[in-house]
Specification:
Blueprint (H helix, E strand, L loop, with lengths): L2 H11 L18 E5 L2 E4 L4 E4 L2 H4 L8 H13 L11 H14 L3 E5 L2 H18 L6 E5 L8 H5 L4 H4 L9 E4 L7 H18 L3 E6 L3 E2 L5 E2 L2 H14 L2 E5 L14 H4 L5 E4 L11 E5 L1 H5 L21 H16 L1 E5 L2 E5 L14 H16 L8 E7 L2 E6 L8 H11 L2 E2 L6 E4 L7 H20 L2
Parallel strand pairs: 3-17, 5-6, 5-7, 7-10, 10-11
Antiparallel strand pairs: 1-2, 2-3, 4-12, 8-9, 11-12, 13-14, 15-16, 16-18
The protein binds pyridoxal-5'-phosphate (PLP).
Amino acid sequence: MKNQEIMQKDLKFNWHPCTQMKDHEFLPIIPIKKGKGVWLEDFEGNRYIDAISSWWVNILGHSNEYINKKIKEQLKTLEHIIFAGFTHEGAIKLSERLCKLTGFDKVFYADNGSSAVEVAIKMAFHYWKNKGEVRELFLSLENSYHGETIGALSVGDVGLYKDTYKEILIKNITIPIPKDKSEEEALKALKEAEKIFEKYHKKVSSLIIEPLVQCAGYMKMHSPSFVKGLRELCDKYNILMIADEIAVGFGRTGTMFACEQAGVKPDFMCLSKGLTGGYLPLSVVLTTDEIYMAFYCDYEELKAFLHSHSYTANPLGIAAANAVLDIFENGKWKMENGKWVLNMDNGQWTMENEGLGILEFNKKTSKYIWDNIQKFKSLPNVKEIRQTGMITAIEMIDYPWQERKGLKVYEYGLKNGVLLRPLGNVIYFMPPYVIQKDEIDKMIDVAYEGIKKVNSEK
Ligand SMILES: Cc1ncc(COP(=O)(O)O)c(C=O)c1O
């Protein structure tokens, strides 16, 4: 089948996420036949650089041979089992590794980011109830995003997704955020935050945050000291802290987890997306023995956490996640046939940068991106550029949303072989870590030309 035919058939049957479907009267839907590394290819051989890691999930490239192999191996023995009353080797291995990596004690599985957030906020509420207190409020940050299910949407603050449902959401209070990554802004925001903590703390079960970068919230960034200050406030006012690292975990901000940069250990950490390298839906909520023990008692006390999903701890997803952790542990960059690849064997390193691990190499990649986007500052319609690790954002001026300038950059990107998916007036790069220099050059050039072009259009 050719692109056109597939597009028509798709639109006859499929209702796509986060989309005004009528847009597809003028905007073609792109049918993808295959992916390799950062590249996606349609049915007519057109290729696109996946500059957004397919909604931030694909950290190690499409069709990664090692992850493919590990999922296939898992398929030979067990595809899925109920995770209540039963367990499997992969889950035990993954949980032990995640606990070692993060310093947590217990892992609760779910199957996507939003459901991990649901689990964390329910657990936080339930923890206090088991201790004899009903704390019906949640605290979250202005401009935050934690997913689309009702609980997750309630603790989010992006009006575009939330406002329609405001009448049916649960109670939540938002804390102002710093305007940028500076220490002064962090201090100012923390002062305001304390007033809110003071006023509501007796009724609040938890504070949920996206540490360092609010991704769906237009890639707004704040300093590690803001995260640290919030942890201190949670300690002072006896409120649990949930770190939603669904988008920023697994090396995206420069460290394995964003909280590390703030030297903070939350009470819950939610992970998903990069957890399986973008292969399969899986999420976890990590927590402490202290929280766990508040639920641990005789059945008749009715304190158990009776939350479940059919696909909890799916073995295939877990095989992918264990493969991702293998690559983080053993993968070393090596130049092969003119390309940087993550090599899993102990190779001979002969060139500069060969033998580096993922996080060290990412530092070089993000610096290369940062150095090369300085030219955007001279575009008259660019307001700000910013970066945290492997997240780089270019904010255009405040065009009225109705002009949909971001969408125009998206269209320009597709016509020129780059999948960008701007958030309003913010264009960003969040590519798989396997992106090569020439691919970065193309990604940046196309975004630059796209932004320049929309400025001159009416
Ligand atoms: C920070 C954060 N939390 C939660 C979610 C929701 O994850 P999912 O889309 O898998 O439900 C997202 C998704 O983008 C996210 O960025």
